[in-house]
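During the reporting period the student researcher (J.K.) took over the structure-prediction task from the postdoctoral fellow and processed the backlog of single-chain submissions. One of the processed entries is reproduced below for the supervisory committee.
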Amino acid sequence: MSVEDLKAVVAANIIKLRAAAGLTQAQLGEKLNYSDKTISKWERAEALPDAGSLKEMAAIFGVTVDLLLTDDSLWRSPPPERAEYSKSAITLVSVTSIWTVAVLTFVIMWLCGIVYWQTFVYAVPVMLITLLALNASFHRRRWNEIIVAALVASVILTVYLALLPFNLWQLLIVIAPAEAVVFFSFRIRKRKKA
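J.K. obtained the following structure tokens:
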């Protein structure tokens, strides 16, 4: 590396580290017992700091002298690694949470003297909607047809059970054509032209 290249590398590093430390040229000069004009010369690559100044700067910035003399593209920290989460664990926690809330609601109502078993029925569509949303966010399409079919049936059954005193058994007839719609909907694909 030529002296001019070294000046440019040191200048870029001083600018970057000084800015990261939130120091002005005058403040850095004061810490090093130099004027801001000298710091400015170093940052314009017109001069190189002496070894003692490099050592003091390294201490101020919390780096090594070697880092001050190295091209910053070589010492930039790599981007932080993204944490990977277990999709199965997220799914299990979500489903378990839904059933925990259903059981808690049932127990609280039972303690109040109301036995409301439909709480568990209402948890089924909520669980299936959650599974569908998680499948979409995890880009897993494998179980979508089954989840949607179960969701359609569970919503119809939930409405039927909510209206149980009115004995609207005819609602159950709707399940068959609704499931056919789901089945055929998942078979609609755009054909590729030959």
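The committee noted the following: The radius of gyration is 34 Å.
J.K. will present the remaining backlog at the next meeting.
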